[in-house]
Amino acid sequence: MSTTDSPLTFVLDHPSLSFDQARLHNHLLLICETEGYTVDELSIVFTTHEVVRTINKQYLDHDYNTDVIAFQFSPSNETHLLEGEIYIDLDMAEERCKEFEATFEEEVFRYAIHGLLHLMNYSDKTPENLEIMKARESTYLSALSKS
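Structure (tokenized):
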């Protein structure tokens, strides 16, 4: 997918898995607008267990697989401009989608929404914050399934 005219770019770096990139791209931009954010420069890399685990270990000192990692490059809570990178583990989405009674694509979309919400300063560090974040994810995922 070409997103050269958009500040939101996707990089599909997986040898065999793919999804509807245009649909997700448009929905993420709508979420940004709804939340009052403007995307200045945001890359989302859809990749493998190996790549995400390496990033997790190198930058966060966590030696385990994870579904999504988000790096914020600007203090978005002050400017409401999003600058950053999100890494999504497509292998994990494929492995776990049935566990959550979701399609592979729904699981990928949930990870992307989750990463985006992190860049908007939503947190999942406490049970209360996790509940709020999961509710926002579900709202946006539900809206996407209706579009």
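Residues 67 and 89 are 5 Å apart (CA to CA). The mean pLDDT is 92.
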